[in-house]
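Figure 3 (text version): structure tokens given as input.
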């Protein structure tokens, strides 16, 4: 194995069912770390179009008061599971934190199932549009099997056993559940503000416009956002496609070598936990206890209560 096909050749030698963790780790950590990060950011953003999801997030006030920590906790915990394996000590610790966080609240199985589906299909669709190459069939199937296993360990029930069946569930859920609500808009505005805050202040209005340009009509309606001007949408999509083409040319020409060190859970520029993972463990992450004045309808009844 050599040249730009180094990891593609490795993936081709693996089985997407048996070796799904390794294939997913290669895709997300070696081949497409930037794209996976961006795609998963928008995947989570997409889930806030469901009023039952946004209403709970709005009620906890986490997105209003600590949006960066909320983002970092989610991103790092999911990266820990991918980097080390869902049955590794660090992976199990990350899953315990996630399950403890979710276990406090009354979240429907269907909402959990929908969020899980976005982690599979949004990166696949993103890379088909903007990647330096589309995902191979083995990578798509590996992502499907990987997240099914993660979902089982999160206690999510009735996860479809077929790739296309789960994709159809996702599409149907969006068609029926993406409905405007004030909580959608508030959580959406907090999230757009978070993304914009990553840029220097003079560029933040443009960043907000850029985020809106990435939203499809269903999302715009559910958030109550105005569509960005067509030229902004075209320029943003064109820039991302150009980036993908240039990376592909650089790979094929040998100017960009295959990444040998995974980027998963190795983000030194993390804003909440500087230098993570040095000095931290997954158990250090996670949202605080629910606010004391949170309406009881949002809380899962305690066992025996």
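Below: residues designed for each position.
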């Amino acid at each position: 194995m050599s040249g730009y096909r180094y990891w593609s050749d490795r993936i081709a030698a693996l089985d997407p069912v048996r070796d799904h963790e390794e294939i997913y780790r290669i895709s997300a950590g070696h081949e497409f770390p930037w794209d996976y990060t961006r795609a998963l950011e928008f995947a989570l953003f997409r889930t806030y179009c469901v009023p039952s999801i946004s209403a709970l997030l709005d009620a906890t006030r986490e997105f209003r008061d600590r949006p960066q920590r909320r983002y970092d906790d989610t991103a790092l915990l999911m990266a820990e599971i991918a980097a080390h394996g869902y049955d590794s000590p660090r992976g199990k610790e990350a899953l315990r934190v996630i399950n403890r966080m979710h276990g406090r609240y009354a979240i429907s199985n269907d909402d959990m199932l929908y969020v899980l589906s976005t982690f599979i299909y949004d990166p696949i669709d993103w890379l088909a549009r903007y990647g330096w190459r589309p995902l191979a069939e083995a990578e798509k199937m590996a992502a499907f099997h990987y997240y099914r296993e993660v979902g089982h360990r999160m206690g999510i029930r009735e996860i479809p056993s077929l790739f296309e069946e789960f994709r159809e569930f996702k599409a149907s859920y969006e068609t029926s559940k993406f409905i405007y609500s004030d909580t959608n808009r508030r959580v959406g505005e907090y999230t757009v503000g978070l993304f914009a805050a990553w840029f220097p202040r003079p560029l933040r209005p443009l960043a907000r416009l850029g985020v809106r340009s990435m939203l499809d009509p269903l999302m715009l309606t559910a958030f109550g956002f105005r569509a960005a001007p067509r030229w902004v949408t075209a320029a943003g999509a064109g820039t991302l496609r150009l980036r993908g083409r240039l990376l592909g040319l650089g790979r094929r020409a040998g100017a960009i070598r295959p990444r040998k060190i995974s980027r998963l859970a190795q983000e030194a520029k993390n804003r909440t936990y500087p230098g993570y993972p040095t000095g931290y463990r997954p158990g250090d992450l996670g949202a605080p206890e629910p606010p004391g004045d949170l309406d009881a309808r949002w809380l899962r009844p305690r066992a025996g209560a």
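The mean pLDDT is 93.
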